Please model this.
Amino acid sequence: MALVLNGKLLAQATEEDLKIRVEKVKEKLGYTPVLATILVGDNPASVTYVNMKAKACERIGMGSQIVRLAETTTTQELLDVIDTLNNDVKVCGILLQHPVPKQIDERACFDRILLSKDVDGVNSQSYGLMSMGRDAYVSATPFGIMRILKHYGIELAGKHAVVVGRSAILGKPVAMLLLNENCTVTICHSKTKNLPDIVRTADIVVGAVGKPKFIQSDWVKDGVVLVDAGYNPGNIGDIDLENCINKCSAYTPVPGGVGPMTINSLILQTVMSAEKLANDER
Model:
């Protein structure tokens, strides 16, 4: 029977430790550290995610500030908001909810976030440092994936990992993290030829393409570890898990796998940022 890589249970267990850490930070700083989330527009999915993150902050006793901006917001207006949050000592983490409206230069805004507050690992410098194995905050979903794999004792060194998807905040960073753990990594994307044949060679498959049930059961070999980072309407992932479960050795369910660990990793890194600030002020 395949091992269920239950991210929901792991996230819940982690929150108990985070509550204790937040209380200690409050004592040192003299105030409650805050995660600031910037929401541009009113995309329903983004609104839901932002509210979930605010509730996660509340559960561990950390502050949450939601900055809501109009759909018509310009790049400069958004940069000004980020500058204000960068200069607010109580804000220990800044999250710019993706995606933003098309008139905004998202990369310029991501790169404006201070590295010390880039708890979602979206700054280009954060990505570079992470890729080199240096100390940096990591994109939340890839960080959550790695935490799940390590918690459940999934062997990584020497394994062939195939990542299907190459986005800047998921596919690319998770590939680098797997490489840093001594996996042999293949990154596939929309231009990849003979995709099913490549996926069949994988010991670990990460579905990060944003298409429901895209990765089929006849694409994967027996004993594979399946990490489904997709979340599509109807609680459907990027992997056809229903038909793959009998072939895999372990898998992340959808929902309840990678999703909860994404939010948990964002909160964890905000606590880490607050702890660094508290230690610097001693």
In short: The beta strands are 3-4, 34-40, 63-69, 91-96, 160-164, 184-188, 204-207, 225-228, 250-251. The first helix runs from residue 7 to 29.
